[in-house]
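Q: Sequence in, structure out?
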Amino acid sequence: MAIATLTARATLHPLVLPVRADAADAGEFHELARVRNAVYRELTGRDEQDLSPAELLPLLRSRTERTTYVWTIRQEGEVVGRTVVDVPHDPGSRVVIATIELLPRVWGQGIGTAVLPHVEAIARDHGRSVIQNWTEQQASDGPRIEAPTGFGSVPRDHVARFLQNNGFGLEQVYRVSHLALSERVDTHVDALLTEARLAASDYRVVHWTSPTPAERIDDYAWLKSRMSTDAPSAGLDTDEEKWDARRVTEMEERVDQMGKTLLVVAAEHIQTGRLSAFTELGIGSDHSATTHQNDTLVLKEHRGHRLGMLLKCEALRLWRDLMPESTLVITYNAEENRPMLSINEAIGFSPIAYEGAWKKELT
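A: Exactly. Output:
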Protein backbone atom coordinates (compact mmCIF):
# COMPACT_ATOMS: atom_id res chain seq x y z
CA MET A 1 0.00 0.00 0.00
CA ALA A 2 1.20 3.47 -0.88
CA ILE A 3 1.14 6.70 1.13
CA ALA A 4 -2.33 8.27 0.80
CA THR A 5 -3.35 11.91 0.96
CA LEU A 6 -6.10 12.50 3.54
CA THR A 7 -6.43 16.29 3.67
CA ALA A 8 -4.39 19.23 2.43
CA ARG A 9 -2.08 18.74 5.43
CA ALA A 10 -2.47 15.08 6.50
CA THR A 11 -1.25 11.81 5.01
CA LEU A 12 -1.68 8.11 5.77
CA HIS A 13 1.48 5.97 5.87
CA PRO A 14 1.47 2.14 5.90
CA LEU A 15 3.90 1.00 8.59
CA VAL A 16 6.22 -1.96 8.19
CA LEU A 17 6.87 -3.15 11.73
CA PRO A 18 10.53 -3.35 12.76
CA VAL A 19 12.10 -6.70 13.60
CA ARG A 20 12.81 -5.44 17.10
CA ALA A 21 11.65 -2.39 19.03
CA ASP A 22 15.27 -1.28 19.40
CA ALA A 23 16.16 -1.79 15.73
CA ALA A 24 17.83 1.04 13.83
CA ASP A 25 14.75 1.50 11.61
CA ALA A 26 12.23 1.59 14.49
CA GLY A 27 11.97 5.38 14.71
CA GLU A 28 8.51 5.70 13.14
CA PHE A 29 7.24 2.81 15.25
CA HIS A 30 8.47 4.58 18.40
CA GLU A 31 6.56 7.69 17.31
CA LEU A 32 3.42 5.59 16.80
CA ALA A 33 3.81 4.11 20.31
CA ARG A 34 4.32 7.57 21.84
CA VAL A 35 1.26 9.02 20.11
CA ARG A 36 -0.85 5.96 20.98
CA ASN A 37 -0.09 6.46 24.68
CA ALA A 38 -0.75 10.19 24.44
CA VAL A 39 -4.15 9.60 22.83
CA TYR A 40 -5.21 7.16 25.56
CA ARG A 41 -4.02 9.51 28.31
CA GLU A 42 -5.93 12.45 26.81
CA LEU A 43 -9.09 10.39 26.26
CA THR A 44 -9.17 8.72 29.66
CA GLY A 45 -7.11 10.96 31.94
CA ARG A 46 -5.27 7.83 33.09
CA ASP A 47 -2.05 6.02 32.21
CA GLU A 48 -2.77 2.32 32.78
CA GLN A 49 -3.07 1.71 29.02
CA ASP A 50 0.50 2.90 28.41
CA LEU A 51 2.69 0.44 26.51
CA SER A 52 6.38 0.77 25.75
CA PRO A 53 7.44 0.09 22.12
CA ALA A 54 8.75 -3.33 23.24
CA GLU A 55 5.36 -4.16 24.80
CA LEU A 56 3.32 -2.85 21.86
CA LEU A 57 5.25 -4.53 19.04
CA PRO A 58 4.10 -8.14 19.66
CA LEU A 59 0.47 -6.97 19.80
CA LEU A 60 0.63 -5.43 16.32
CA ARG A 61 2.23 -8.35 14.51
CA SER A 62 0.02 -10.51 12.30
CA ARG A 63 -0.44 -14.01 13.65
CA THR A 64 -1.98 -17.34 12.71
CA GLU A 65 -5.50 -16.29 13.71
CA ARG A 66 -5.50 -12.74 12.29
CA THR A 67 -3.86 -10.33 9.87
CA THR A 68 -3.07 -6.86 11.19
CA TYR A 69 -2.61 -3.66 9.17
CA VAL A 70 -0.97 -0.63 10.77
CA TRP A 71 -0.69 2.97 9.53
CA THR A 72 0.69 6.18 10.99
CA ILE A 73 -1.21 9.41 10.35
CA ARG A 74 1.02 12.42 9.72
CA GLN A 75 0.23 16.10 9.55
CA GLU A 76 2.97 18.13 7.89
CA GLY A 77 5.42 15.32 8.69
CA GLU A 78 4.49 14.93 12.37
CA VAL A 79 2.84 11.72 13.61
CA VAL A 80 -0.55 12.77 15.02
CA GLY A 81 -2.39 9.44 15.06
CA ARG A 82 -2.54 5.82 14.01
CA THR A 83 -4.92 3.35 12.43
CA VAL A 84 -4.97 -0.40 13.13
CA VAL A 85 -7.19 -2.96 11.38
CA ASP A 86 -7.38 -6.58 12.54
CA VAL A 87 -8.83 -9.15 10.12
CA PRO A 88 -9.76 -12.34 12.03
CA HIS A 89 -9.30 -15.66 10.22
CA ASP A 90 -12.13 -17.44 12.04
CA PRO A 91 -14.27 -19.49 9.60
CA GLY A 92 -17.24 -17.53 8.28
CA SER A 93 -16.12 -14.25 9.83
CA ARG A 94 -17.80 -11.08 8.48
CA VAL A 95 -15.78 -8.76 10.69
CA VAL A 96 -12.78 -6.48 10.84
CA ILE A 97 -11.86 -4.69 14.06
CA ALA A 98 -10.66 -1.14 13.47
CA THR A 99 -9.11 1.65 15.50
CA ILE A 100 -8.64 5.25 14.33
CA GLU A 101 -6.83 7.29 16.98
CA LEU A 102 -5.95 10.96 16.67
CA LEU A 103 -4.51 13.46 19.09
CA PRO A 104 -7.45 15.65 20.18
CA ARG A 105 -5.69 18.81 18.96
CA VAL A 106 -6.21 17.66 15.33
CA TRP A 107 -9.86 16.64 15.76
CA GLY A 108 -12.44 18.36 13.61
CA GLN A 109 -10.21 18.67 10.53
CA GLY A 110 -11.73 15.77 8.57
CA ILE A 111 -8.75 13.47 9.08
CA GLY A 112 -10.63 10.58 10.70
CA THR A 113 -13.38 10.73 8.10
CA ALA A 114 -10.74 10.58 5.35
CA VAL A 115 -9.10 7.54 6.96
CA LEU A 116 -12.33 5.51 7.11
CA PRO A 117 -12.53 4.64 3.35
CA HIS A 118 -9.08 3.03 3.65
CA VAL A 119 -10.34 0.89 6.55
CA GLU A 120 -13.44 -0.05 4.53
CA ALA A 121 -11.25 -1.00 1.55
CA ILE A 122 -9.36 -3.48 3.73
CA ALA A 123 -12.65 -4.96 4.91
CA ARG A 124 -13.99 -5.34 1.37
CA ASP A 125 -10.70 -6.76 0.09
CA HIS A 126 -11.11 -9.54 2.64
CA GLY A 127 -14.80 -10.08 1.89
CA ARG A 128 -15.93 -8.57 5.20
CA SER A 129 -19.10 -6.54 5.66
CA VAL A 130 -18.85 -5.42 9.31
CA ILE A 131 -16.46 -3.01 11.03
CA GLN A 132 -16.38 -3.05 14.84
CA ASN A 133 -14.69 -0.68 17.23
CA TRP A 134 -14.24 -0.32 21.00
CA THR A 135 -13.58 3.19 22.36
CA GLU A 136 -13.48 4.55 25.88
CA GLN A 137 -14.83 8.08 26.20
CA GLN A 138 -14.32 10.91 28.65
CA ALA A 139 -16.89 11.50 31.37
CA SER A 140 -19.46 14.13 30.46
CA ASP A 141 -22.63 15.69 31.89
CA GLY A 142 -24.09 16.35 28.44
CA PRO A 143 -26.44 14.28 26.24
CA ARG A 144 -25.93 10.53 26.22
CA ILE A 145 -26.54 7.58 23.90
CA GLU A 146 -28.26 4.58 25.46
CA ALA A 147 -27.10 1.07 24.57
CA PRO A 148 -29.77 -0.98 22.76
CA THR A 149 -29.26 -3.69 25.39
CA GLY A 150 -30.93 -1.36 27.91
CA PHE A 151 -27.77 -1.42 30.02
CA GLY A 152 -25.45 1.56 30.09
CA SER A 153 -24.82 4.65 28.00
CA VAL A 154 -21.97 6.77 26.64
CA PRO A 155 -21.72 10.56 26.22
CA ARG A 156 -22.68 11.94 22.83
CA ASP A 157 -19.33 13.68 22.56
CA HIS A 158 -16.97 14.26 19.61
CA VAL A 159 -16.00 10.56 19.49
CA ALA A 160 -19.60 9.36 19.46
CA ARG A 161 -20.67 11.95 16.89
CA PHE A 162 -17.80 10.94 14.61
CA LEU A 163 -18.82 7.28 14.78
CA GLN A 164 -22.53 7.98 14.33
CA ASN A 165 -21.94 10.40 11.45
CA ASN A 166 -19.91 7.70 9.70
CA GLY A 167 -22.52 4.96 9.99
CA PHE A 168 -21.59 3.25 13.27
CA GLY A 169 -24.20 2.31 15.84
CA LEU A 170 -23.64 1.75 19.55
CA GLU A 171 -24.21 -1.93 20.39
CA GLN A 172 -22.89 -2.42 23.92
CA VAL A 173 -21.42 -0.54 26.86
CA TYR A 174 -18.58 -1.79 29.05
CA ARG A 175 -18.03 -0.61 32.60
CA VAL A 176 -14.43 0.20 33.52
CA SER A 177 -13.81 -0.48 37.22
CA HIS A 178 -10.91 0.01 39.65
CA LEU A 179 -10.01 -1.76 42.88
CA ALA A 180 -7.43 -0.16 45.17
CA LEU A 181 -5.63 -2.95 47.02
CA SER A 182 -5.05 -2.55 50.75
CA GLU A 183 -4.97 -4.54 53.98
CA ARG A 184 -8.65 -3.75 54.46
CA VAL A 185 -9.43 -5.18 51.02
CA ASP A 186 -7.32 -8.24 51.82
CA THR A 187 -9.39 -8.91 54.95
CA HIS A 188 -12.64 -8.44 53.03
CA VAL A 189 -11.47 -10.75 50.23
CA ASP A 190 -10.53 -13.44 52.76
CA ALA A 191 -14.06 -13.35 54.19
CA LEU A 192 -15.64 -13.62 50.73
CA LEU A 193 -13.28 -16.44 49.87
CA THR A 194 -14.31 -18.45 52.93
CA GLU A 195 -17.97 -18.21 51.89
CA ALA A 196 -17.22 -19.08 48.26
CA ARG A 197 -15.22 -22.18 49.22
CA LEU A 198 -18.23 -23.58 51.08
CA ALA A 199 -20.40 -23.23 47.95
CA ALA A 200 -17.70 -24.69 45.69
CA SER A 201 -16.83 -27.83 47.63
CA ASP A 202 -16.95 -29.93 44.44
CA TYR A 203 -14.05 -27.95 42.96
CA ARG A 204 -10.39 -27.36 43.72
CA VAL A 205 -8.39 -24.26 42.78
CA VAL A 206 -5.26 -24.58 40.64
CA HIS A 207 -3.02 -21.79 39.39
CA TRP A 208 0.07 -21.09 37.33
CA THR A 209 2.09 -18.39 35.65
CA SER A 210 2.96 -19.00 32.00
CA PRO A 211 3.90 -21.36 30.49
CA THR A 212 0.75 -23.36 31.12
CA PRO A 213 1.48 -26.88 32.45
CA ALA A 214 1.14 -29.53 29.74
CA GLU A 215 -1.64 -31.32 31.63
CA ARG A 216 -3.72 -28.11 31.75
CA ILE A 217 -3.16 -26.62 28.31
CA ASP A 218 -6.02 -28.34 26.43
CA ASP A 219 -8.59 -27.41 29.08
CA TYR A 220 -7.25 -23.86 29.26
CA ALA A 221 -7.54 -23.56 25.47
CA TRP A 222 -11.15 -24.76 25.63
CA LEU A 223 -11.98 -22.16 28.30
CA LYS A 224 -10.36 -19.42 26.19
CA SER A 225 -12.42 -20.48 23.18
CA ARG A 226 -15.64 -20.18 25.21
CA MET A 227 -14.90 -16.52 25.95
CA SER A 228 -15.97 -15.78 22.37
CA THR A 229 -19.33 -17.53 22.69
CA ASP A 230 -20.38 -17.48 26.36
CA ALA A 231 -19.66 -13.87 27.33
CA PRO A 232 -22.40 -11.27 26.59
CA SER A 233 -21.92 -9.71 23.14
CA ALA A 234 -25.22 -7.84 22.52
CA GLY A 235 -25.70 -7.11 18.80
CA LEU A 236 -22.03 -7.41 17.91
CA ASP A 237 -20.83 -9.94 15.36
CA THR A 238 -18.83 -12.37 17.48
CA ASP A 239 -16.74 -15.03 15.77
CA GLU A 240 -16.32 -18.39 17.48
CA GLU A 241 -12.61 -18.48 18.15
CA LYS A 242 -10.67 -21.72 17.90
CA TRP A 243 -8.11 -22.13 20.67
CA ASP A 244 -5.76 -25.09 20.96
CA ALA A 245 -2.42 -25.81 22.60
CA ARG A 246 -0.55 -24.11 19.75
CA ARG A 247 -2.51 -20.88 20.11
CA VAL A 248 -2.03 -20.86 23.89
CA THR A 249 1.72 -21.35 23.42
CA GLU A 250 1.91 -18.53 20.87
CA MET A 251 -0.05 -16.25 23.19
CA GLU A 252 2.34 -17.02 26.03
CA GLU A 253 5.32 -16.32 23.77
CA ARG A 254 3.88 -12.84 23.14
CA VAL A 255 3.39 -12.36 26.88
CA ASP A 256 7.05 -13.25 27.38
CA GLN A 257 8.21 -10.94 24.56
CA MET A 258 6.26 -8.10 26.18
CA GLY A 259 7.95 -8.70 29.53
CA LYS A 260 4.58 -9.37 31.14
CA THR A 261 3.59 -11.65 33.98
CA LEU A 262 0.30 -13.52 33.56
CA LEU A 263 -1.33 -15.39 36.45
CA VAL A 264 -4.06 -17.92 35.62
CA VAL A 265 -6.31 -19.21 38.41
CA ALA A 266 -8.72 -22.00 37.49
CA ALA A 267 -11.31 -24.28 39.10
CA GLU A 268 -10.94 -28.03 38.55
CA HIS A 269 -14.12 -30.08 38.85
CA ILE A 270 -12.99 -32.80 41.26
CA GLN A 271 -15.26 -35.54 39.87
CA THR A 272 -14.13 -35.16 36.26
CA GLY A 273 -10.69 -33.60 36.70
CA ARG A 274 -11.57 -30.97 34.04
CA LEU A 275 -11.17 -27.22 34.33
CA SER A 276 -14.52 -25.48 34.54
CA ALA A 277 -13.68 -21.82 35.15
CA PHE A 278 -10.73 -19.42 35.06
CA THR A 279 -9.58 -15.87 35.62
CA GLU A 280 -6.39 -14.02 34.65
CA LEU A 281 -4.36 -11.18 36.16
CA GLY A 282 -1.55 -9.54 34.21
CA ILE A 283 1.05 -6.79 34.54
CA GLY A 284 3.93 -5.44 32.46
CA SER A 285 7.59 -5.09 33.35
CA ASP A 286 6.79 -2.24 35.76
CA HIS A 287 5.52 -4.18 38.76
CA SER A 288 4.30 -1.01 40.47
CA ALA A 289 1.89 -0.25 37.62
CA THR A 290 -1.82 -1.05 37.42
CA THR A 291 -2.77 -4.74 37.29
CA HIS A 292 -5.15 -5.78 34.52
CA GLN A 293 -7.93 -8.28 35.22
CA ASN A 294 -8.12 -10.04 31.87
CA ASP A 295 -10.48 -12.87 30.88
CA THR A 296 -12.80 -14.42 33.45
CA LEU A 297 -15.28 -17.18 32.59
CA VAL A 298 -17.33 -19.90 34.25
CA LEU A 299 -18.60 -22.55 31.81
CA LYS A 300 -22.38 -22.48 31.61
CA GLU A 301 -22.78 -26.00 32.98
CA HIS A 302 -20.78 -25.12 36.12
CA ARG A 303 -22.49 -21.87 37.07
CA GLY A 304 -24.32 -21.50 40.38
CA HIS A 305 -21.41 -22.65 42.59
CA ARG A 306 -19.84 -19.22 43.24
CA LEU A 307 -16.82 -20.13 41.12
CA GLY A 308 -16.46 -16.57 39.82
CA MET A 309 -16.15 -15.21 43.35
CA LEU A 310 -13.89 -18.09 44.37
CA LEU A 311 -11.41 -17.53 41.56
CA LYS A 312 -11.35 -13.75 41.66
CA CYS A 313 -10.67 -13.76 45.40
CA GLU A 314 -8.05 -16.50 45.15
CA ALA A 315 -6.36 -14.59 42.33
CA LEU A 316 -6.21 -11.36 44.35
CA ARG A 317 -4.69 -13.18 47.34
CA LEU A 318 -2.06 -14.85 45.16
CA TRP A 319 -1.35 -11.58 43.36
CA ARG A 320 -0.60 -9.69 46.56
CA ASP A 321 2.26 -12.14 47.22
CA LEU A 322 3.38 -12.23 43.59
CA MET A 323 3.19 -8.48 42.84
CA PRO A 324 3.09 -6.58 46.16
CA GLU A 325 4.10 -3.28 44.50
CA SER A 326 0.95 -3.11 42.36
CA THR A 327 -1.80 -1.42 44.35
CA LEU A 328 -4.52 -0.98 41.71
CA VAL A 329 -6.52 -3.42 39.55
CA ILE A 330 -8.59 -2.45 36.48
CA THR A 331 -11.27 -4.56 34.82
CA TYR A 332 -13.79 -4.22 31.96
CA ASN A 333 -17.25 -5.83 31.98
CA ALA A 334 -20.32 -5.61 29.79
CA GLU A 335 -23.00 -3.59 31.60
CA GLU A 336 -25.54 -6.40 31.06
CA ASN A 337 -23.21 -8.96 32.67
CA ARG A 338 -24.89 -8.56 36.05
CA PRO A 339 -23.49 -11.79 37.62
CA MET A 340 -19.87 -10.68 37.04
CA LEU A 341 -20.57 -7.06 37.99
CA SER A 342 -22.17 -8.25 41.25
CA ILE A 343 -19.00 -10.19 42.08
CA ASN A 344 -16.81 -7.16 41.33
CA GLU A 345 -19.02 -4.85 43.37
CA ALA A 346 -19.00 -7.25 46.32
CA ILE A 347 -15.20 -7.36 46.21
CA GLY A 348 -15.01 -3.56 46.14
CA PHE A 349 -14.49 -2.58 42.51
CA SER A 350 -16.00 0.82 41.67
CA PRO A 351 -16.84 2.24 38.21
CA ILE A 352 -14.55 4.95 36.85
CA ALA A 353 -15.46 5.12 33.13
CA TYR A 354 -17.40 3.50 30.30
CA GLU A 355 -16.41 2.12 26.92
CA GLY A 356 -18.65 1.85 23.87
CA ALA A 357 -18.67 -1.10 21.45
CA TRP A 358 -19.66 0.15 17.97
CA LYS A 359 -20.61 -1.59 14.74
CA LYS A 360 -20.95 -0.53 11.11
CA GLU A 361 -22.57 -2.64 8.39
CA LEU A 362 -20.99 -1.99 4.98
CA THR A 363 -23.27 -1.67 1.97
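The two ends are 23 Å apart (CA to CA).
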